[in-house]
C-alpha cells in the first residue's frame, strides 16, 4: 500500500520510497524532515479540495504537509 492510500489514524512504517519519481530538491527536503525508509508515520488529515491535497503526515512528534504525489511514491506497511 502507498502512503496516500493509508486510512486516517492508521500507523504504518515506510518500507520503500521511489526517490527517482521525485524532484531531487523535494526528495532532500522529505529526507531532512525524517520521511525516509524505516520512519513510522500516520495520516492525520487530508485536504478537502478536489485531489484531497495536501496530506498531514505525523512523523515522530511532528506533523508535516506532504503532497499526494509524494505520498504515492512511498510504500508503507501497516503496524
UniProtKB/TrEMBL annotation:
It comes from the Bacteria. SMART domains: FeoA (SM00899). InterPro entries: Fe-transptr_FeoA-like (IPR007167), FeoA_core_dom (IPR038157), Transcriptional_repressor_C (IPR008988). Residues 1-78 form the Ferrous iron transporter FeoA-like domain. Keywords: Iron. It holds the Pfam family FeoA. This is Ferrous iron transporter FeoA-like domain-containing protein. It comes from Novosphingobium endophyticum.
